Description:
Strand content: 15-25%
Strand order of the largest sheet: 3-2-1-4-5-7-6
Radius of gyration: 18 Å
Oligomer: single chain
Helix content: 40-55%
CATH superfamily: Vaccinia Virus protein VP39
Distance between the termini: 38 Å
Order of helices and strands: HHHEHEHEHEHEHEHHHE
Structural class: alpha/beta
CATH class: Alpha Beta
Number of helices: 11
Largest sheet: 7 strands, mixed
Amino acid sequence: MTGRSVNASAITHVSDTARWVALYRAMESERPDALFRDPYARRLAGERGEAILAGIRRARSWDWPHIVRTAVFDEIITRCVAEGADAVLNLATGLDARAWRLALRPSLTWIEVDFPEVLAFKREQLAAEEPRCKLAWEPADLADAAQRAALFSKVGAAHRRVLVVSEGLLVYLLPEQVAALADDLHAQRAFRWWLIDIASPRLLKMMKKWAGPQLVQGNAEMHFAPAESTGFFLPHGWKEGEFRGTFAEAVRLKRLPRYMAVWRVLGPLQSRKRKQEMARFAGCALLERA
């Protein structure tokens, strides 16, 4: 996000993936039947986002899971805010612009957390735009346990019903890092919900084959895809309140690509075990305090 002199298509840091995903949001926003409108996405992705996407094999054909994830997160966040969340703690916010584009209560506090350079770039790009709610910027390295604990304690003390959002974050962490994050979040009684996206081991294997070399090269290797799905979080105080499978949501939202249509035909013919596995292949989950 800085003025580094690098190959424009290279991923050099995990934060670079935010540009690639922002471009997916821009592509969806420009459709006549768009599921959401993000007027800031193309500006935030920039030419570097275009270059990164061009440098990943078949990247444009894999836009649909990210589009579906964005739409589902929008729905769940909007609902949780309507049901009484007084703050949204957006971890590894990247170039997400929900605080500017969603219909939110003016009294809601939206807290943006990411590396200092990411937030500086975002603030500069959106300086002339008006957020829909109260906005707080919290530069932090979430891998630093002391920084993380101090931040969570600060937010927990200031609010009563917090929705934690970590879109596109957990897959880049090691299981022990996810466990520590879950424990730290649960330590704050005000943190009522935690909205995550989660992959299965089979999907992780596919993603590593598809984009793995570029991500490893940029120190952004993917790790987290627990075989027990959201059951991973139970020992850490979080239970599944809702799960939305990516495939089923893509069908509902009419974003399943033609090359995936064969799975709609083959799905009913599969074994019960295989159906259950595919239902959990990838998805969005709203966790609640256990």
